[in-house]
Amino acid sequence: MNGKDTGEQPLQDSQREYQERYCILSEMIPLGAFRLGPGPDYRIASTNSMFSQMLGYNPEHTLLGVAVRDLLVDPAGWQQVDDELTRNGSLAGHELRLRQKEGSEILVALNARAVPDQDLHIAWIDGVAEDVTERKVLELEMQYHESELSRYALALTQANKKLNLLSSITRHDILNQLTALFGYLELMGEDSQDPKVLKFIDLEKSIAETIRKQIQFTKDYHEIGVNSPRWYDVKKTIETSTASLALTPGTLLVNIDNLSIYADPLLEKVFFNLVENALRHGNGLTWIVFSSLPNEESLTLICEDNGGGVPEKFKDAIFNRQYFKNTGFGLFLSREILGITGISIHETGEPGKGARFEITVPAGYFLIESQSAGHGTR
To answer: Which of 131, 165, 182 corresponds to the end of one domain?
Structure first.
């Protein structure tokens, strides 16, 4: 063996190994790989099996020698590819519509690079193509559905504005009519001395007052969740919300300091309802106390009194618009208001010894301010 043979053999082995690795790699990737010869025809010089499968060809129907324009749905679209490769030497993500063997179309995303030599600006083109047909269809469907959702949302917003306006006008008109009705009932009571007539007038006043409360309920319920929740100082909120109630001095005690909770802006109605409900149904109670009990995972606000309490069978009903001693809508509204920020309320008192409402505030929705440093903990 001469020196020339000794030098060429390792080079040939290296080239053969490189070609084998390239073939293995090109067959493993989930993309269509190809090489095109020089222009202007850019005929296919080689492909991997994935590229043939993408276009509906099997090994018996080779793509070798086919001009790239013959595979394009719009042959004129190749001019953009040619221009960009001539200008930049490569391109990425360029979308082309290719025609499959049976005539159907697919959309591919093309990545390619041009390899020049001394005689030709583009001696050949190496590239990979990804079939993005399904993805494109999905994107178009998503865009359509988003457009439809936007249209429905706009229509819903407009309808909601109309309903809100109608509801507001209707409530206003009904309340005006009720005010007039109360006035006429007062006049009737003044002009009559008949006990039977006066009894009927009192019943009619009671019915009218119930209607007024129901109208007010629709307004309060409509406002739940309309405005964003925020932080409220519990003690100040209790004191402000109950200021209009006829409370004997010393009846209401708020043993809570430096505590804030994150709640719906209608939180004042919750505390008002609890105290007003206790006064109305407390059977001679002498005290109402608010306190708090924090633990690692939550905090419990407690409102308790020394009235008659709630019978066991009514403990759930009072929150579900099932009436116990005409409690009305207050506790139902309170539960809905608190629920906006994940706060729950239950009645846990012992019947005959007073009512006890426990309001459970989850972690992250209460803040206890440090008295010494002025910092809070959650």
So the answer is: 131
CB–CB of 274/323 below 8 Å? no
Question: Which tokens go with 314?
Answer: 């009514």
**331 and 279 inside one domain:** yes
Q: Is residue 347 part of a domain?
A: yes
Per-residue exposure over 220-229, b if at least 16 CB sit within 10 Å of its own CB, e if not: beeebbeeeb
CB atoms within 10 A of CB 195: 8
User: 7: which residues sit within 8 A by CB, 6+ positions away?
Assistant: none
The tally of domains found in the chain comes to: 3
pTM of the model as a whole: 0.51
Closest CA to 237 of 160, 307, 303: 303
Question: In residues, how long is the chain?
Answer: 378
255: DSSP letter:
-
Strands (E), the chain: 32-36, 44-47, 90-99, 105-115, 124-131, 230-233, 252-254, 259-263, 288-294, 298-305, 344-347, 356-362, 366-369, 376-377
* CA–CA dist 74, 110 (Å, integer): 15
CB contact set of 247 (below 8 Å; sequence gap of 6+)? 275, 279
Q: What percent of the chain has pLDDT over 90?
A: 31
Residue type, 59: P
Alpha carbon separation from 18 to 2, 5, 29, 123 (Å, rounded): 26, 20, 17, 21
Q: What are phi and psi of 366, to 5 degrees?
A: -135, 155
Question: Do 178 and 206 belong to one domain?
Answer: yes
pLDDT in tens, 147-192: 999 898 888 878 877 777 777 787 778 888 888 998 988 888 888 8
Tell me which residue of 263, 355, 239 sits closest to 303, measured CA to CA. Answer: 355
**Which CATH number belongs to the domain containing residue 289 in this structure?**
3.30.565.10
Q: Which domain holds residue 171?
A: 138-223
CA distance 169 to 167: 6
What sign does the CA torsion over 268, 170, 213, 329 have? negative
Strand partners, 303: 290, 357
Q: Are residues 38 and 125 in the same domain?
A: yes
Per-residue pLDDT at 375: 36
DSSP track, 304-327: EESS----GGGTTGGGTT--SSS-
Give the other-Cβ count within 10 Å of 90's Cβ: 13
